[in-house]
Structure formats: C-alpha cells, structure tokens
Amino acid sequence: MTPSPTASDAAVIEAFAGIPGLLERAPALIARGRALDCECLLGTLDHPFHISIRSGRIVDLTPAPVLMRSWRFSYRATAAAWLEYWKPAPKPGWHDLLALTKLEQAALEGDLHPFMTHLQYFKDVLALPRRHGSAVPA
Amino acid sequence: MTGHIEPMVGRYVHVDIDGEMHRIYFEENGAGIPLVCLHTAGSDGRQWRHLLGDEEFSKRFRIIAFDMPWHGKSNPPSSWTGEEYRLTTARYTATIRAFCHALGLQKPVVMGCSIGGRIVLNLAIDHAREFRALIGLEAADFQAPWYDTSWLHRPDVHGGEICAALVSGLIAPQGPEVSRRETLWSYMQGGPGVFKGDLHFYRVDGDLRGRVGKIDTGVCPLYLLTGEYDFSCTPEDTRRTAAAIGGASVTIMEQLGHFPMSENPGQFRRYIAPVLSEILKQSTTSTKQGAHV
C-alpha cells in the first residue's frame, strides 16, 4: 500500500505538477528535447508521476499508480532530495541528479537510453522549480 | 594594433614518447620556476587559461599547459590506425616525463586535475626526485564509480552531449555561468572515445590504493586540493588518500567542484595562491642553502 504523503511529499508533488507549465515558458529547453518522445516515471519514491513527453513537451502528467501503464525509465528521489535540489545553491552531493543516485537518495531504473541521450535536458527540466522557486518551501 | 592580446603563447614541441615522436601543443607564459599543468580527462589545456594569464603568478613561474596526445590540438600519433584509445598509468607517466624532458625543464612543479591529480600521485610514488613540488587537484588514490563509461562512446548517443552532461553535475552551483559553459564546451569537443579512454586509466589501470604510502613528501612536497562539490573525487576520498601519506597538505575548497581552475577561476586563485607562494618560499630557501633547484 502506498503510504500517505508527508508535508515534504506534498510540497514536491505540488512542485512537480507545476513543471509542465514552467517548461512551456522555456522554449530553448523544449527545443533541446525536440527529438524526444518518451514515457517515464518521475518524482518521489512513493508518489511519482507518469509523464508523457512529445517533441520535448510534457503533454501529460498523471500521479502513479495507473493500472498497467508502461514507462521506459524511472528517476525517483526522496522528498528531502528534491527539496534540496531545488534550492538556489544545494549542499554538496545534493546538487545533481547523479550525485543523488551516488548518495543513494535517488534511484534510476529501467531503459536508460532516453535519459542518457537527453541527460542535460532532464537535469534542466527537473531543475525548473529551482529557477522558479515559489513552489518550493524555503 | 588595438585588440587586446593575451600574454600566453602557443607552440608545438616534438616529443619522443615510448619511441614514437608526438607533436604536442602547449601554451606558456611567464618566467621562473617551471609549472606544468595537466588537464582533466576528455578536455584539454584551455582549462588553464586563467592561470596562464595570471599577471602575478607569471612573474615567478613559467606556467605551461600542454594538450595530451588525442586531446585539443595534439593529434593522435601517426601510427594510430583507428584502434580504441586507452590511457594507462605507464603511458601517462611517460608522456609527462617526456614532455618535461623535451622542454628541458629543471625540477618543474607539476599540477594536475582529476586524472591529472591521480597521475601526480604516481609521479610522487615513482619519480619524486625529478620534481620540485607536486599539486593534485581533485586527486585520490581511488574513487568509487558513479556511472557506466560505455555511455560515453556508442553510435546511438551523441558523444559531445553526453560527456558534457555527465560532468556538468561536478561543477559547483556558485560559479559564474559563463565559466560553467566554457568548462563544458571543451567536453563537447573531445574526439570520439577519448574521454572514455582516459577513464580507463582512472577506473581500471590507475588504482593506487596501497601504493601511496610509499610517497616521501620530504623528497618532494605534495599538495592536495579538492572542491567540496566534487562528488566524483570527494573530499573524503582525498582525505583518505592523504591519511596514508605522511606530510601531505590537504585543502578542501569551498564553492568549487571538479574543475576548479576553469569553473570558477577567481575562487580557485584564492586557494592556489598560498600554495604557489609556499613553493616559491621553499625554492628560495633551498637556493640560499646551496641546494640544487
């Protein structure tokens, strides 16, 4: 059974829900993902989202689980990791998606090809709440 | 002439490495104690341009940065017929010693970053008497791997994009955006498989655990400086390495990551200036005491 969201989970969930809108305001970032069509699972360990990307745009973001819905790769991190990652200057080791996996605060799973071909794109998309910090509690 | 011309000069030197001549590109500026700078894996000597152009340091040091074969403006050797490039400890050591010999450098200081920091430890183990001082940036005897290097060289992944994207996280968030982009630009420009080939030394061939205890800092002083944001060679990796070496100096640099000299040159200068000053002071003392310097 999926545990109920904590206050930190709720803050991260709210921030994630805002990412598609933030991405729409970043045309250069969308352009970098122009060759990317992908189904992925992103978010916190217990409350991730199914995300559909088409030509670099997030066209769907739905809370998991969704019955029998597939995804190619998943990047999930602790709520604490996301909240630190979105700070203007995260502390050492919490400042990068792969630093977080090394720190075992995040898990990267599945078919990594779309993630690796668009690594900087995903780093930047998932950092959007940092630049638009209003969704993240201080 | 109205344009600003920077003081460093670039030239080529022909270097015999393991019996084969290599045309090596290097840049230099200044006069005094030779200071040879080694770039990181998959990059080139441009990383050192701020140090090379430093007005104060160049008054007392002859600052030299060369591109390793396969990197920057140093081509692969003429014997290369397309086989996979793989850097080894022996080859890297031979290249540095041959370059210093070709330029006729007398007891140079060698400062290397990342793989350059690792090889500096090997120079300290096996060839300490040839050097006046050794400086390892982001240096350790071993680091735990954090990604599969096969992603760096495969036809269905853009090499320049993936190399830069992987190392982008090693840069501290506080650095200037322009320096961050410049640091990544050289990673976008490396030849296919070169970054991966350098990491063969780093990940497979160059494990120095158990060997660094042989380093005698009485023969050649050793300075280790690591950025707090470097999660590849962490401060803990450097501290662990230094703990096995008597007399090694360790500095953890704030607001810096894996590429201190290029990602935030101003911040790096604050940390390297006292090290160079100490080396200068030791050299002056040695000269006064009649020692060969």
Q: Topology of this structure?
A:
The complex is a heterodimer of chains A (138) and B (293).
Chain A: H1 7-24, H2 27-32, E1 37-44, E2 48-54, E3 57-63, E4 73-77, H3 79-85, H4 97-102, E5 106-110, H5 113-117, H6 119-126, H7 128-131
Parallel strand pairs in A: 1-4
Antiparallel strand pairs in A: 1-2, 2-3, 4-5
Helix pairs in contact in A: 1-3
Chain B: E1 9-17, E2 20-29, E3 33-38, H1 49-52, H2 57-60, E4 61-66, H3 89-102, E5 109-113, H4 115-126, E6 133-137, H5 159-168, H6 177-188, H7 194-205, E7 222-227, H8 235-243, E8 249-253, H9 260-263, H10 265-288
Parallel strand pairs in B: 3-4, 3-5, 5-6, 6-7, 7-8
Antiparallel strand pairs in B: 1-2, 2-4
Helix pairs in contact in B: 5-6
Describe the structure.
The complex is a heterodimer of chains A (138) and B (293). Chain A has 138 residues and is an alpha+beta fold. Helices cover 39% and strands 23% of the residues of chain A. Chain A is built from seven helices and five strands; from the N terminus they run H-H-E-E-E-E-H-H-E-H-H-H. In chain A, strand 1 and strand 2 form a beta hairpin. In chain A, helix 1 packs across helix 3. Chain A is globular, with a radius of gyration of 14 Å. Chain A starts with 6 loop residues before the first helix and ends in a 7-residue tail after the last helix. Chain B has ten helices and eight strands. In chain B, strands 1-2-4-3-5-6-7-8 form an eight-stranded mixed β-sheet, sandwiched between helices. The interface between A and B is medium-sized, with 20 and 22 residues.
Which H/E pattern describes the elements of chain B?
EEEHHEHEHEHHHEHEHH
Note poorly predicted spans of chain B.
none
**Total number of distinct structural domains of chain A:** 1
The CATH superfamily of chain B is: Alpha/Beta hydrolase fold, catalytic domain
Range of strand content of chain A: 15-25%
Cα radius of gyration of chain A in angstroms = 14 Å
**Spatial order of the strands forming the largest sheet of chain B:** 1-2-4-3-5-6-7-8
Round the mean pLDDT of chain A to the nearest integer and report it. Answer: 94
CATH class of chain B: Alpha Beta
The biggest sheet of chain B, with number of strands, parallel, antiparallel or mixed sense and barrel status, is: 8 strands, mixed
SS elements, strand count of chain B: 8
Mean pLDDT across the residues of chain B is 96
CATH class category label of chain A:
Alpha Beta
Number of strands of chain A: 5
